[in-house]
Amino acid sequence: MTKKMKNPLNRRLPRELKSEFGKYLVIFLFFIMVISLVSGFLVADTSLHTAYLDAFDKYNIEDGNFAYAEEASDDAIAAIEKDGKVKVYANFYKEEDTDDFESTFRAFGERNDIDKVCLLDGDMPKADTDVAIDRLYAKNHDLEIGDKFGVAGKDLTISGIVALSDYSTLYQNASDMMFDNDKFGVGVMTDAGFAALRENHLHYNYSWSYDTAPEDDAEAKDMAEDLMPILAENGMLTNFLPEYLNQAIIFAGDDMGGDMSMILAFLYIVIVILAFVFSITISNNITKEANVIGTLRASGYSRGEMVRHYLIMPMLVLLVAAVVGNVLGYTWLEQIFANQYLASYGLTTYEVLINPQAFVLTTVIPLILLFIINFVMLTVKMRISPLQFIRRDLSKRKKKKAFRLNTKIPIMRRFQMRVIFQNFPNHVMIFFGVFFANFILMFGMILQPMLVHYQNTITDNVLSAYQYILKTPAETETDGAEKFCFGSLDTLPEKRSSESVSLYGVKPDSDYVKLHSSGKKVDISTAYAEKYGVEKGDTITLKDPYGSDKYKFEVGGIYDYPSTIAVFMEQDLFRQTFDYDSDYFNAYFSDQKIKDVDDALISTEITVDDLTKTSRQLIRSMGSMMNLFLVFGALMFVLILYLLSKIIIEKNAQSISMVKILGYNNREINRIYLHSTTIVVILCILITIPISSLVMKEVMEVVFFEYSGWITYYMPAVTYVEVAASGVICYAIVAFLLNRKVKKIPMSDALKNVE
Asked: For the chain, which terminus, N or C, has the lower number of CB atoms within 10 Å?
């Protein structure tokens, strides 16, 4: 039997790898970095998300909750269960300020039937003074098992660390724009211990589960709308929150799903950019080896064989990088990304799951993308005849004369311009690489100054140091306290699901709110105007959150209040609209703490801390992630510029060797070749930074539109400077490396490949 001869072309692969080791190493490491990051993220995201979804059945998470002003009778509960086809569970809680640090603690009794508790460490409460608290709340206040902390004058001992299944995200109120696991915490006690806490802030909260679970959110919405009037018939409804609208339950799951889409888009953009970098690299190799290719083609090697040969190395590099990247993703990086989520969300226990989808997304699809892009490029290149390859005539179009440059331009400047024009495709790729790297850098840099600006703006435009929302009207002797009417309506579910809108009815001569409108017109907050694109003269329509009534208001002005989606009107209009008595009020503005109103009569106390919880929480939860973007953006900047600039140097190696023979020194050569690339890079940085900012503005507005409330996009001038400076520093590193490469080009290269 005749032994089949090995393809001699394969012997060239080790030599090619050795000669281009630096380039392939850079690409290899970059692929590992991208694939391991994405793989680690997908494994962590899928594992946590699966545990999150399983928790709905495992811990019997509610289908919704409602609250009454008073405890419901047994007959009322029986009527609700019969007419609403639901099972109702008492899920009362008491909410008090902590004594040892500044926060609000929400305590529940035992939860054995619904919204069960996942014990993470320690023991469930046994004694009346025992409490098991949320993991993040404990972490943020340095609380451990066995520690004590005061709640409304009562010392509680921490017996265990838990995750409450219906508080995977610590939202205190449904209308909050952002959760707060620093100033707000939850925990469970024994029923006797819960009863021993004072009754001042007891909330008659009930959870329900449907006899027949809805199939999707659309059906859940219909069922909730049918249930609400039944609840209203059987008690004074003060809160109604279906599960599909409960941010404390759904936010973590939605966030994990949204993050997956973002990270996959990021992966494919990077892969496509690197695939084009590879295609330029291969094209450069073909140019360098044109004589060899022509000789091989003339010797009988087919186009297909040549295409396959030049595809092997990039495909092999990506395949090995994918294997290494997936190993790192499943081990080290999975834990890093899981910790990112666990630093923000009170999730139950989870197991790391094998994720076939991650392998397909990080390995199979990138290999296909790389194959298609390079296959198309190679197929087009190999259509050139063997004779043209031997003659190094690789252009299928007739060569045009180089356009004349004005002789008044200095010779060195003309030389630089020629280099720029001759390497135009490479410079186009540099532009896109710089744009993407700048975008990532900007994303890493912008969040903190934007949130700090938001925080400062809120502080500067706060209505009063304190806002007190009362359960029933109560008088105070506090100096400067001013009565007002407070309520809430919901936006119509058009661009997004309904969102709570705070309504303020204030005196025309108020010391705290200087209205622009009067009579039947209202002011809306800047947050409302910017988020929904509402202008002066427009008419807005809001609806009753617990009924079917709708209300229309004509906008007479925009009030500078960025912290809340709010509507401001005169007290008389508020009272007429909602049919209240002429002297009705239920809230106070005050710059001093009100101490002469019984706590039991106060429903909510709003301070600056409450208004700035969004910025504080985002800075806390996103800080380390932003650092990751900064590092990745900088690395991408260096690698992309290094690869493409290196190709330009290699493409011009013969010319560089020739000018060395003509007596040009390294400094002059750098002025011709490196400085031309420097000009392009600097221009790309300057052009792409404002483009990146515009794209970032659109991205941020889309992201924050899904949150309750609004954060105005803000990019300080110093951030533009920081992004530009980062780009220049990254390129300086590249220029240093390339300067060494130029020095190493020998004069003998000028004698090679002479036609």
From this structure: N
DSSP secondary structure letter of residue 69: S
Q: Please say whether the beta carbons of 26 and 642 come within 8 A.
A: yes
Decide: helix, strand or coil at residue 429.
helix
Q: Which residues pair with 108 in a beta bridge?
A: 93, 188
Q: Which two tokens stand for residue 330?
A: 């499943």
| Contact assessment for residue 567 and residue 502, using Cβ atoms and an 8 Å cutoff | yes
Helices (H), 706-752: 717-744
Residue 323 host element (H or E): helix 303-328
Residue 564's pLDDT is 83
Q: How many beta carbons lie within 10 A of that of residue 732, not counting itself? A: 12
Closest among 338, 430, 452 to 647, alpha carbons compared = 430
- DSSP for residue 6: P
Lowest mean pLDDT among 225-234, 435-444, 488-497: 488-497
pLDDT digits (tens, 9 = 90+) for 32-84: 888 888 888 888 888 998 899 999 999 999 999 999 989 999 999 999 999 98
Contact 197, 187 (CB under 8 A): no
| Residue pLDDT, tens place only, 447-462 | 788 888 888 888 888 8
Per-residue CA distances from 41 to 256, 259, 271, 707 (Å) = 10, 9, 17, 23
Tell me the DSSP string of 476-510: ---TT-EEEEEEEEEE-SSSSS--EEEEEEE-TT-
Beta-strand pair 500-506/566-570:
parallel
pLDDT at 669: 75
Cα dist from 557 to 42, 186, 544, whole Å: 47, 40, 23
Q: What is the crossing angle of helices 303-328 and 247-288, to 10°?
A: 140
Backbone angles phi, psi at 207, to 5 degrees: -110, 150
pLDDT at residue 146 greater than cutoff 90: yes
Would you state the pLDDT for residue 620? 66
- What does the DSSP 8-state code read for residue 350? -
Q: What are the residue ranges of helices labelled H in 382-423?
A: 386-390, 411-422
Are 182 and 612 spatial neighbours (Cβ–Cβ below 8 Å)? no
Angle at 214 between CA 210 and CA 218, to 5 degrees: 130
Cβ-contact 32, 325 below 8 angstroms: yes
**Cα 190 to the center of its chain, rounded Å:** 39
Q: Which long-range contacts (CB under 8 A, 24 or more apart) does 552-555 make?
A: 553/521, 553/522, 554/520, 554/521, 554/522, 555/517, 555/521, 555/522, 555/523, 555/524
In this model, does residue 325 exceed pLDDT 50? yes
Mean pLDDT of 495-522: 87
Query: Given a cut of 60, is residue 399 above it in pLDDT?
Result: no
Average pLDDT, stretch 669-677?
A: 75
Helix (H, G, I), strand (E, B) or coil at 134: strand
Lowest mean pLDDT among 116-120, 121-125, 127-131, 335-339: 335-339
C-alpha–C-alpha distance, residues 643 and 317, integer Å: 15
> What tokens were used for 234?
């059987």
Read off the pLDDT band of 239 (50, 70, 90): confident
Alpha-carbon gap, residue 717 to 509, rounded angstroms: 39
Torsional sign, CA 358, 363, 368, 369 = positive
Alpha carbon dihedral 327, 361, 700, 492, in 10-degree steps, equals: -130
Count Cβ atoms below 10 Å from residue 300 Cβ, excluding itself. Answer: 7
User: Could you tell me which of 325, 274, 615 has the C-alpha nearest to residue 448?
Assistant: 615
Taking only the tens place, the pLDDT of each residue in 88-99 is 999 999 999 898
CA distance 117 to 55: 10
Calpha distance 578→416 (Å, rounded): 74
